[in-house]
Structure formats: structure tokens, C-alpha cells
Design brief:
Helix content: 25-40%
Strand order of the largest sheet: 1-4-3-2
Radius of gyration: 15 Å
Order of helices and strands: HEHEHHEHE
Strand content: 5-15%
Shape: globular
Largest sheet: 4 strands, parallel
Structural class: alpha/beta
Oligomer: single chain
Length: 151
Amino acid sequence: MNDTGNAARPEKAEDIIARADERKLVMGLRYAGAVTPAEAWALQGEGVAQIVDVRTAPEWQDVGHVPEAPLIEWPRDGADDALKAFVAKVAETFDRERPLLFLCRSGVRSHHAAELLTHAGFARAYNILEGFEGNAPGKGWRAAGLPWKKG
């Protein structure tokens, strides 16, 4: 309950996207914007966007992952062929107009994924700030108490 005695309303997707757009400007991002883990969960839950995990298969399997977030591994070596294969896999899996929210361990690989995919024609690519495990103590998907599972 809020201080007026009314039940707090769930946040609207439009408000979350507006904040992500603002972060793009403030942070100087070269992709659609950035969302917090809680914002990403809300957007996926509303069916507005899809979370895409770009960590390695062992991270996804052994550390844990977001339910219903597919794994498309970011190529860690940065070779051109591997980057092209990554873009091709995303393109064959998702519509270029669908908002995609990229998640990694700390927010670095997902930042690069959002940037690369924007350059490849995905105008609605977002980074999930802080990552799955967090980029600092008390940060990240798991620290936020959001749903996740192993295996």
C-alpha cells in the first residue's frame, strides 16, 4: 500500500522504456537503452520484450538462468566469423522489431551484444544493467531476488 491507502499500481511498460531511453542519452549508449534487472523481468512478464542470455553454456547451466530466457552465447574471442554467426543466430530466432533485453554475468558482454545487434539492424536492443551475478556486491539479477533456476 502506498501512503494514500491505495494499492500500488504495477509500473507501465511505457514508463520503463522511457527510463531506458533516458539512460541511453545519459550513458551515451549506441543502442536502444538500458534496463535494470527488475525492469527487464517486468517487460518480459508483460510480453513486451524478450530476455536473451549471452553467457556461456556452463554459466547458464551451473550458475543459473532466468526462466524462459534462451541462451545465445556471445563469442568471447571476438573473431569476425563468430560475431557474424552470433548475429545470424539472433536473426533466425527473433524478429528485428522485437525488443530484446541482453543479459550476461556483469553487463559487459550484454552491452557489446546490444551494440553489435543495433549495428546489424535490431533497433530495439537493450542491455540489462548489472548482469545476472552482479557487477558489485548487492547488484544483479540474483541479488534483486528475481526468479532464476539452475540446470
